[in-house]
């Protein structure tokens, strides 16, 4: 497994980022085409290329239009065009691994208490869906360090961040098995989205500053039990909280005002804990020395 730290390359020009876009549509923009039945198609405006969805339109015909315009395709069908919001984008994000869905992203950021200027570790990166949310939340003064064991996933995440967020100099992506330990110590917040968070607690405790927030995201009740019990057995974590998030959309149509019949009934459990002051437990043998970010006295 490679040990080098990968820094973000110059953004690809395939898409324009989803933030800071207070301007008319232009080339390379990611654009959602929404039909009369609210079906969504994520497309990119490419010079010389046509958008094809049951009929076609040239990319150039959309240049200069404000978002929220309606356009007619060659078939006569009309579509609403908008740049995707974060919640619009994530279900369409190119991925090989399961992403964290927007219904959980909001609570993760708030219960994980991510703030502008924070230093945050994330492991693993997957498709980079949560990375984009973290980078937006910490802002230009913050720092996000992502650990990912698979080079192919890291490549995809790098591309997604570049395409849909843009340049992110405050992001560092390390190809690494995080169970071997983090380089950083004194970090403010630490998020884990991989199968065995309980196995990572020793290295998490070494990386987090006193008062730092640890958040684990696990799909099964067995993982929830193992993670919470492992936290409970340690003297350096407290304030442990577990919950899940259910989002139920409603139909509002004439007299039919009711929840939709279908919903995503389960995605994952969220576990939050605080790192206490005091020394960590004995250092695992394979742990490497840390790079100090802020005092961990
Ligand atoms: C469910 S995905 C993460 C999805 C991501 N949170 C998102 O929203 O796109 C889990 C990731 O953890 C990575 N992973 C698994 N074990 C790991 C380890 N020991 N160290 C680092 N990354 C690991 C996997 O390769 C995978 O990319």
Number of domains: 2
Tally of strands: 18
Strand content: 25-35%
Distance between the termini: 33 Å
The CATH topology of the largest domain turns out to be: Rossmann fold
Cross-sheet strand order for the largest sheet:
1-10-9-8-12-13-17-14
Number of continuous helical runs:
6
Gyration radius, in Å:
21 Å
Oligomer: single chain
CATH superfamily label of the largest domain: Vaccinia Virus protein VP39
SS-derived structural category: alpha/beta
Write up this protein.
This protein is of the alpha/beta class. It has 2 domains: 5-10 and 88-292, Vaccinia Virus protein VP39 (Rossmann fold); 30-82, Vcp-like ATPase, Chain A, domain 2 (Roll). It has helices spanning 86-89, 102-111, 129-138, 151-164, 201-207, 221-232, and strands at residues 5-7, 30-34, 40-44, 50-52, 56-58, 69-72, 78-82, 119-123, 143-148, 171-175, 184-185, 187-192, 208-218, 237-243, 250-253, 256-259, 269-275, 291-292. The strands form 5 sheets. Strands 1-10-9-8-12-13-17-14 form an 8-stranded mixed β-sheet, with helices on both faces. Strands 3-2-7-6 form a 4-stranded antiparallel β-sheet, with no helix packed on it. 38% of the residues are buried. S-adenosylmethionine binds next to helix 3 and strand 9.
């Amino acid at each position: 497994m490679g040990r080098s730290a990968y820094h973000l390359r110059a953004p690809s020009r395939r898409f324009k980022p989803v933030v800071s876009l207070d301007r008319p549509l232009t080339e390379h923009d990611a654009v959602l085409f929404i039909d009369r039945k609210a079906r969504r198609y994520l497309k990119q405006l490419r010079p010389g290329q046509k958008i094809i969805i049951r009929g076609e339109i040239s990319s150039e015909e959309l240049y200069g239009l404000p978002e929220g315009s309606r356009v007619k395709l060659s078939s006569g069908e009309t579509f609403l065009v908008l740049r995707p919001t974060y919640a619009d984008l994530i279900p369409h994000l190119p991925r090989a691994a399961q992403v964290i869905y927007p219904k959980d992203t909001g609570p993760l950021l708030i219960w994980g208490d991510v703030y502008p200027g924070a230093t945050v570790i994330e492991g693993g990166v997957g498709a980079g869906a949560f990375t984009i949310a973290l980078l937006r939340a910490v802002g230009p003064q913050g720092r996000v360090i992502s650990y990912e064991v698979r080079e192919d996933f890291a490549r995809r995440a790098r591309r997604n961040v570049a395409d849909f967020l843009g340049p992110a100099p405050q992001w560092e992506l390390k190809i690494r098995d995080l169970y071997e330990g983090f380089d950083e110590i004194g970090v403010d917040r630490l998020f884990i989205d991989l199968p065995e968070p309980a196995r990572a607690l020793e290295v998490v405790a070494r990386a987090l500053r006193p008062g730092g927030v640890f958040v684990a995201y696990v799909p099964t009740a067995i993982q929830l039990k193992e993670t919470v019990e492992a936290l409970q057995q340690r003297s350096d974590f407290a304030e442990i909280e577990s919950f899940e998030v259910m989002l139920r959309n409603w139909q509002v149509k004439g007299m039919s005002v009711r929840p939709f019949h279908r919903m995503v009934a389960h995605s994952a459990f969220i576990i939050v804990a605080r790192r206490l002051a005091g020394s960590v437990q004995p250092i695992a043998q394979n742990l490497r020395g840390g790079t100090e970010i802020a005092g961990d006295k």
